[in-house]
Structure formats: C-alpha cells, structure tokens
C-alpha cells in the first residue's frame, strides 16, 4: 500500500570551492511500506522547491535537478524508516502492521490481528 507525502530537508551545497551555501529543499513522493522488510521507502520522488543562500539563480535549477536525481537513487534503495529487529515493540508492530495510507491529511494504519 502506498500514499503521497512530503519531506523537508536542510541542505549544504558545496561545489568547485566557489559554489557554497546552506538552504532548504522540499521533496514529495509516494510512501511505500514493504512488510517483509518492516521498512518504509520513498518512491516517485519530486523536488518541489529548493532554496540555497548565496547560490545564483543560474545554478539553482541545475542543483535542483541534481538533487532530484541523487535523492531518487538513494531513497529508492535506503528506507526512510525501518523497524528494529532487536526491539520487541518494533517486532510486534512489524508483525501486525498491514498497511499505511495518507488521505485528506490523515494517517491511516491498518493492523492485522493474529
């Protein structure tokens, strides 16, 4: 089961010693829960906004495109959250969690009772 959601990151851009600045990036995508792994992944990533101080508008678009490509690659392989196998509460949650959805700004969690 999947749903769309957004994340907000603080970023630091460093390139060629002359391009440098701190900023913010807003990313949206589809949340996917992989039950076998007990892990949540972000899919179909879209960079919605990027603002980096001291970085000219000329480079903002290039940095945004690079950030989208990089985030899509990394977040497709790396879960944004994973239940811990050595924590009994996480084991119980993983065993009972069936699906997670977001609709009308509300998080819905479906549990499977043993």
Summed up, what is this model?
This protein is 26% helix and 52% strand. By secondary structure, it is an alpha+beta fold. The strands form two sheets. A four-stranded antiparallel sheet has the order 1-2-3-4, with helices on one face. A two-stranded antiparallel ribbon has the order 5-6.
Task: Write out key terms for the chains shown.
2 helices, elongated, alpha+beta, 4-stranded antiparallel β-sheet
Walk me through this protein's architecture.
The chain has 114 residues and is an alpha+beta fold. The chain has one domain: Uncharacterised protein PF07273 family, DUF1439 (Bactericidal permeability-increasing protein, domain 1), CATH 3.15.10.40. Helices cover 26% and strands 52% of the residues. It has two helices and six strands. The strands form two sheets. A four-stranded antiparallel sheet has the order 1-2-3-4, with helices on one face. A hairpin with a 3-residue loop joins strand 1 and strand 2 (19-34). It is elongated. It starts with a strand and ends with a strand. The mean pLDDT is 80.
Question: What is the strand and helix layout of this fold?
Answer:
Layout: E1 2-15, E2 19-34, E3 39-52, H1 57-77, E4 81-82, H2 88-96, E5 97-103, E6 106-111
Antiparallel strand pairs: 1-2, 2-3, 3-4, 5-6
What is the gyration radius calculated from CA atoms?
17 Å
Number of helices: 2
Let me know the CATH homologous superfamily.
Uncharacterised protein PF07273 family, DUF1439
The level-1 CATH class: Alpha Beta
Tally of domains: 1
